[in-house]
Structures are given as structure tokens and as C-alpha cells.
Amino acid sequence: MINVQCFAHIREQIGKDQLILDETKITVKDLMDKLSALYSIQTESIMVAVNEEYAEPGDIVNEGDTVALIPPVSGG
Amino acid sequence: MMFVITSEPILIEEVTNKVVRPEAGAVVNFIGTVREFTKGKRTLSLQYEAYPAMAEKQLEKIGAEIKEKWPEAVTAITHRTGKLAISDIAVVIAVSTPHRKDAYLANEYAIERIKQIVPIWKKEHWEDGEEWIGDQLEKTVYPTGKPEEMNSL
User: Fold this and answer.
1) In this complex, how many residue pairs, one in chain A and one in chain B, have their CB atoms less than 8 Å apart?
2) Burial of B7 (0-12, 13-18, 19+ CB in 10 A)
3) Which residues of chain A have pLDDT under 50?
4) Domains and CATH numbers, chain B
5) What is the reported pLDDT for B118?
6) Mean pLDDT in residue range B59-76
7) DSSP letter assigned to residue A16
8) Chain A residue whose CA is closest to B146
9) Which of A5, A63, B22, B88 has the fewest Cβ atoms within 10 Å of its own Cβ atom?
10) Mapped to the 3 state alphabet, what secondary structure does B133-144 carry?
11) Would the CB atoms of A75 and B147 count as touching at under 8 Å?
């Protein structure tokens, strides 16, 4: 299981702040493709964090990891 | 705690005092407040949302970047979340250095980096609607999947 946290407009589009995916090992890119298909979200401007660090599309997400979908930030 | 995400009102002096020390001859504060009018459009209030654990780590990263560029600088940053009214304080950045120029530069570097890498989002509430502000130019894409390093300062 992989926990996916959602924020800002992505959280509102998906309708949940947290998703549980039944995966054990998947690349960031494949995971994003899966979420994009399941929830019809636009993923090209979304950054991904794995265990609170920014990740690259080719990075591997493992069982028990926490993924976060990070839309373009607007703090400050 | 030098790098903090909080839902409580920010006390400017409390953040400033974290960087005051005998070696410092300059302390620069940046205070980010909620602006009423943006391009003629009236904001009623703002809602800030954060991914707190990661946001604090990214603020620490900014502190480390500043330390690399200005080794004598000490930085403290507090960013607020939740609903803010016009003129409420959203962020306070305090930087101290032995001499003032470095404190000004490092402080500006910090706010630029916050807008690039710290997972905090604001939702604007206007008279006629509301919207999450993506990036403030509305054209950022991240071809590498994550924000670029900033080397311009």
C-alpha cells in the first residue's frame, strides 16, 4: 500500500486529502499516469514528493512510502 | 525552532529575536502581508494551506542554501496557514549578518525560494469567486518533475 497525500486544487478535484493505492513498487511516472487516469487530473505541472523529498519521474515508490502531489506552490 | 509553519498569528519580534546575536550588526526582516488589490481585483481574504512536515524541511533547506552563500548569516522563517484577512501577516523572514548588505541579499533570496520550493498554497477569495493560486505567473511547468536550483543570487 502506498499513501498519497493531496493538496490545494488537487485535493478539491479528487475530493479527498488522502488516497491509498494498492501498489508495492512503482515509478513516480507510472503512479502519476495511474492517478491521472483514475481521477482525470492534469499532472504535467504537479511535482511529486516521496517521504517529504521532491522526487524525479524515474524514482521508485515502495510499499509504505508516503507520496504527496504538489501543485505549483504559492506561499509567501 | 528556526523554521516554523503555524496556524497561529505570527509575532514579528519573536521571529526576529531568534537571529539576534553578538556577532550580528544587521537584522533584516521581511514581513509578507495580505494585499487587498491585485491587478484591480479585490481580495476579501486568503486561505493558506501547507504540507507542514515537508514545508518545514524545505524552509530548513533554504536556511542551508543561505548558509552556503552567506556563511555568516543566520535565518529564521515562520509561515502561517489558515484563513487570513487583509493586512494579516502571512510570513516573517529574519536574517542577521555582521554587515547589512548580506542580510538584505539573503533575505530576498529566502522569499524567492519560498515561492519556488516550499509546499504552501494560497486560495484567493474574491467578491465574485475563489481560486487556488497555482504559480503566480500561471505558466510554470516542471520538466524535470521538481523545481530548479536557483543560482542567480
Assistant:
1) 93
2) exposed
3) none
4) 3-127 (3.90.1170.40)
5) 98
6) 98
7) -
8) A47
9) B22
10) ECCCCCCCCCCC
11) no
What is the per-residue pLDDT for B134? 79
Q: Can you give the residue ranges of every domain in chain A?
A: 2-70
- pLDDT-derived band of residue B148, with 50, 70 and 90 as boundaries? low
Instruction: Assign a CATH topology to domain A2-70.
Output: Ubiquitin-like (UB roll) (3.10.20)
Q: In 3D, which of B142, B146, B2 has the Cα closest to residue B62?
A: B2
The pLDDT of residue B146 is: 59
pTM flag (> 0.80) = yes
In the beta sheet, which residues pair with residue A19?
A4
CA-nearest residue to B119 within chain A is A73
B146-150 LR contacts (CB < 8 Å, sep 24+): B146/A47, B146/A54, B146/A55, B146/A56, B147/A47, B147/A54, B147/B116, B147/B117, B148/B116, B150/B109, B150/B112, B150/B113, B150/B116
